[in-house]
Amino acid sequence: MCDKFFDFAGKKVAIDVNKLTYTKAFLSERTQFQGDIPSLKPPIPGSEGCHGTEKVLRRGFVCADCGCCNRRLFWNRWFCENRGFTLDATMQPYPDHVLEEEAAKFDGLMSRRRRQNAVNRGSAVSDLVEEAESAGDTTDRSISDKQMTEDSEVDESDIDEDDSDMAGAGQSKKNTNGTLESTVRESPSEVALDNGEVDLLATRLNRKVIRLMQNLSFGRYTARQYFLPDIDGNIIGSLTLFTSNPQINAMANGPNDLYRQLELLDIGLRRNPAAIVGHKLEGLTRHFQQNFGARYKFGVSVQSKGFDEAPEVILRALHRLRWAGQSAVKATTQMLTGRDCGPNAPPTETKDFNELLALGFMEDDRINYHDDGEKELGPTVAALSLGSPSVMRFRPKIKSGLGEFVAKRSNGKFFMDVLEVPMKHGDMMVMHGPAIQQLYEYAVEPMGGRRFSLTCRHIDPEKMASDEDRQDAAVKGAIPEYSHSFAYNGDI
Ligand SMILES: [Zn+2]
Ligand SMILES: [Zn+2]
């Protein structure tokens, strides 16, 4: 012991350390804690001020029964993976005024994007903006996003470096240099366009890559169709965006009704293992899924119900998407008639959809760049978007060899997006042409708190691995006779 220890303000006290004892009063001293004793176990995230899809409700919870930490597995309930404790997580209807606020904010953001990305200007200006954006792309969200991903979630496919620039889109003027900003205006007449056409939908459009496009109308929908090329300029497929409107949305069994049913009905939505399956570090899909019809088992294995077990809301969406798919493919074929598109030409007809994948997205749930290129999948994919808005972005894969026409991102690993389009409540998207999946990839970025996407495909039984799978697909993928009364014609 230090010999200064018992030296009190210069007065040295002679103490024999070996004879020191504790007094009873010291040993018995207790002071009662005043106030509520807080529990170390956090309560299950409450619904106060929440509607059910907020980020705080998606992260996970501590089981009230066993006290263990759990992931949020199901859309409509809390479920403990230890001992099966279950508690309903009731969804409140997402308020109309919140949806309206989201839509208004989204429209503002999209029109800024259109100006910044010079959608209706000559390609020279677009390129300058792209370069400036890419040079000023210092907000490295790929890192922060991954760090914030608390339970090593992954998206539908491989984790890509997320090079989203949406977050800063509102203020990205700081990134571009001042002169550009003042020259870029959304007035198409000022500069001659490479290929004439004014685009009123896209928020980014690389006109060197996408040179063929058209406006269409189907029923009460207006639609915009873009044709995607390969390196030789041959058209390999089309992307058709059906833009809905308040009139369509409000029709009986239209998008408003479908949304309101889906958000409350338990259709089985859950997150599925997507990475290091079975390991304690297993990662789940970011969004919640339920498959109907033929089984979808690519990458992530999704639980499936036959169409005969599907609720009416799913079958109504299916018939809407059948109509959209057929309409878009017909228009594609008409446009390409007489044009030699080479070996990767899109098929002139579509195959009937036998599968529908329902996805539920809570706040901030995104789908990173991926393709749907599995060999069993037919040439056409159609998707209906319900609820909160989102942005869909397309870029060529590096292997497309399109470097002459599109710049790379500043990291050099990916191309810039060549097309970016808004997807709002009631909108539909049809992608047609299998080679698109080989040469392009796409991402969907959410811009609100609650969204559903219903996606239809044709899964080719002939390419399935076993007779059992083929049998299963034929039974589950058969569209029930009674549902043909839901056939959709564009609300005309
Ligand atoms: Zn438990
Ligand atoms: Zn996909």
Summarize the structure.
The protein contains 11 helices and 24 strands. With 492 residues, it is α+β, with helices and mostly antiparallel strands.
Mind explaining what this structure looks like?
This protein has 492 residues and is an alpha+beta fold. The chain has two domains: 49-92, no CATH class; 97-486, Sandwich (Jelly Rolls), CATH 2.60.120. 23% of the residues lie in helices and 23% in strands. It has eleven helices and 24 strands. It has helices at residues 24-28, 55-58, 96-116, 123-135, 141-148, 178-183, 246-250, 255-264, 312-336, 434-439, 467-476; strands spanning 7-8, 11-12, 61-62, 69-70, 77-79, 86-88, 204-205, 212-218, 221-229, 235-243, 273-275, 283-284, 288-293, 297-298, 300-301, 304-305, 355-361, 367-370, 377-387, 390-396, 419-423, 428-432, 440-446, 451-459. The strands form seven sheets. The chain has a nine-stranded mixed sheet. A five-stranded antiparallel sheet has the order 7-21-20-23-18. Strand 9 and strand 10 form a beta hairpin. The model is unreliable at 123-195 (pLDDT under 50). Bound molecules: zinc ion (ZN) (2 copies). One zinc ion binds next to loops.
